[in-house]
Amino acid sequence: MSGPDLTARLVRHIRAHGPMTIAAYMAMALHDPQAGYYARRQPLGAAGDFVTAPEISQIFGEVIGLGCADFWRNIGRPDPVVLAELGPGRGTLMADFLRAAAVVPGFREAARLVLIDASPVLREEQRQLLGAFGPLWVSGFDEVPDGPLLLVANEFLDALPIRQLARGRRQWRELLVAVDASGGLCLSEGPESPAATLLVPPQRRDAPPGTIVEICPAASALAAALAERLTRQPGAALFVDYGYAGNAPGATLAAVDRHRAAGVLDRPGTADLSAHVNFAAFAGAARAGGAAVHGPLTQREFLTALGAETRLEVLLRKARPEQRGLLETGLRRLIDPQEMGTLFKAMAVTSPGLPAPAGFAG
Q1: Residue 236 — φ and ψ, nearest 5°?
Q2: For burial by CB atoms within 10 Å, which of 108, 138, 145, 153 has the most?
Q3: How far, CA to CA in Å, does 40 sit from each of 2, 93, 165, 257, 298?
Q4: Distance of alpha carbon 114 from its chain centroid, rounded?
Q5: Residues with Cβ < 8 Å from 87, sequence gap 6 or more?
Q6: Which residues pair with residue 179 across a beta bridge?
């Protein structure tokens, strides 16, 4: 099913039920079982729409794997331990993770791999790369088996549906997806209301007219569910994503199609949709649930603390001449402030009372 077919369905839905929230639109555009982006597309790599850190450098997954295995050792080497990944993509991060973590005695034998991904296209690629580890596939965090937990998530939170709220003259209003006079999709403003105002974080409610605030209820719900689990069972979760920890930047929702910017409402189902992560809001929800939060750190600070540059030196000593340039440019792209080094952040959520994970101990 093509983008225009999904557009027609969205138009019919809006005409029947009224304008929809941006979150509802994102959920349908990304996850509709027939025409959604993740149901139809292989988004990663040169032939896809974007490239993530594990695809850029093996060092990313390797140092995270070593850090998580070190955390497992520091909390008493629980066996079994649930090793879960949210949105594992092709499985590249986890393949590098497990290869590096194998040097920690007993870790690979204790780990029970769980991949949280509903995409049939990506599950098949994960099966090819990680099938030897006997993974269990589930569609949501609520399906992850009980037990001590190590969870990783790279560029997962940015794809969760967001809502946009705009400051009016007196109250706030929500931005909605509607149908314009020509029968196409457009953004429209809902009415100013106390209900919309209550959705805005209290510290932002007095912003000047025209200000736009994004909220992500799905991220807050995930943080709360994760905290509830980590207060019952020991563990840690690592989130790496692009976003902000301080001042909200306004509207950040964007679409990418074949590595190029696209219109958010253009041909839904054919482009990736994402928004910058509000790490402060995610941390607040996790702390409110009783979990401990470490970070956020910039990706540069985090990977450097994990020994990424030392790992590069080791790889360079063993690399063929034609490999050395790729290894160096790959890591540089991850840690350079002009590339991914500062826009991307890392945050860990742990059970209360446990030691800080590697990379955050300083």
Answers
A1: -150, 155
A2: 153
A3: 9, 22, 30, 13, 33
A4: 17
A5: 116, 117, 153, 154, 155, 156, 159
A6: 185
Same domain (yes/no): 170, 199: yes
Q: What are the tens digits of pLDDT across the range 70-107?
A: 999 999 999 999 999 999 999 999 999 999 999 999 99
pLDDT tens digits, 17-49: 999 999 999 999 998 888 888 877 665 545 455
Length of the chain as a residue count = 362
Return all residues near 217 (Cβ < 8 A) that are at least 6 apart: 23, 161, 163
154, 169: one domain: no
The reply to whether 171 and 136 lie within a common domain is no
Alpha carbon distance 54, 11 (integer Å)? 38
Question: How many domains would you assign to the chain?
Answer: 2
Which domain range does residue 114 map to? 39-159+216-260+267-350
CB atoms within 10 A of CB 319: 15
* Cα separation, 362 vs 225, whole angstroms: 27
Question: Could you tell me the CATH number of the domain that includes residue 294?
Answer: 3.40.50.12710
> Is residue 308 situated within a structural domain?
yes
